């Protein structure tokens, strides 16, 4: 459940309580219910017992957030490949039954090409430009201006910044890349190169069904080879849809003789 499991549990219980209240149900109405809970950073062996103790459900099927995202985007039992790119990344392949993944090791060691990665990389470029190691661009000037043209303020920001804080700069990177900014385009091209390697590791071939998802994912289409986009498909639904399918499947299996 990430770096702050206590906070994650509190937020999750708050969401369950709010949903029950909106539906006009007491929490006791969930005592016979089955839940599927998919959280980024979930370690089932470590976290499932804490979920069971903290939440009012009779049965909890816990996993990380990737299966629900894949099923929601591609559909239950459907084969395909997925690049779900937002603050973090999910790079996945499925034959409709089993799932395979690349990456998803978290911001500090992975999440290449993600919103957080783009934001951090752009700030790195801004400091290099301040040091005259690289020539400035419109993007790097704008980013330094966000910190009052004070590189020490940028460094102070970095000492406590979380992935979401870095990802807040990703829209500026994407817009700058579309406008032809050299540093922004270099970041997008580097991210796309990583995704090409990741897809290859998952045995993707041009023409295979590929879904680009998330706030960042579709923006990589212009940086991927045309043949990789020949099988491009739209997402069928959301991770919430995927979680609903998975919990229905789990509940049905529970009642089978």
UniProtKB/TrEMBL annotation:
SUPFAM superfamilies (alphabetical) = Actin-like ATPase domain
Q: Locate the ATPase BadF/BadG/BcrA/BcrD type domain: which residues?
A: 7-196
Origin species, per record, is Sulfitobacter profundi
- InterPro entries this protein is in? ATPase_BadF, ATPase_NBD, Euk-type_GlcNAc_Kinase
Q: Gene3D superfamilies from the entry?
A: 3.30.420.40
Q: Which domain of life is it from?
A: Bacteria
* Name listed for the protein in its UniProt record: BadF/BadG/BcrA/BcrD ATPase family protein
């Amino acid at each position: 459940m990430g770096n702050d499991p206590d906070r994650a549990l509190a937020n999750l219980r708050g969401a369950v309580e709010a949903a029950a209240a909106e539906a006009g149900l007491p929490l006791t109405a969930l005592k016979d219910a089955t839940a599927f809970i998919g959280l980024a950073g979930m370690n089932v062996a470590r976290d499932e017992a804490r979920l069971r103790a903290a939440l009012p459900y009779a049965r909890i099927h816990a996993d990380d957030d990737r299966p629900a995202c894949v099923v929601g985007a591609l559909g239950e039992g459907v084969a395909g490949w997925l690049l779900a790119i937002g603050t973090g990344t999910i790079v996945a392949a499925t034959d409709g039954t089993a799932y395979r993944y690349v990456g998803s090791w978290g911001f500090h060691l992975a999440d290449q090409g993600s919103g957080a990665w783009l934001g951090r990389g752009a700030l790195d470029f801004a400091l290099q430009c301040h040091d005259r190691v690289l020539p400035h661009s419109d993007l790097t000037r704008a980013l330094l201006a966000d910190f009052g043209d004070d590189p020490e303020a940028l460094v102070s920001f970095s000492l406590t910044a979380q992935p979401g804080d870095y990802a807040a700069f990703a829209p500026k990177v994407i817009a700058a890349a579309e406008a032809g900014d050299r540093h922004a385009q270099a970041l997008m091209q580097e991210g796309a190169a990583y995704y090409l390697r990741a897809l290859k590791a998952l045995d993707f071939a041009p023409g295979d069904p590929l879904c680009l998802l998330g706030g960042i994912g579709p923006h990589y289409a212009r940086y991927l080879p045309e043949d990789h986009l020949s099988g491009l498909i739209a997402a069928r639904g959301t991770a919430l849809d995927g979680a609903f399918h998975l919990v229905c499947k789990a509940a049905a299996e529970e009642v089978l003789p």
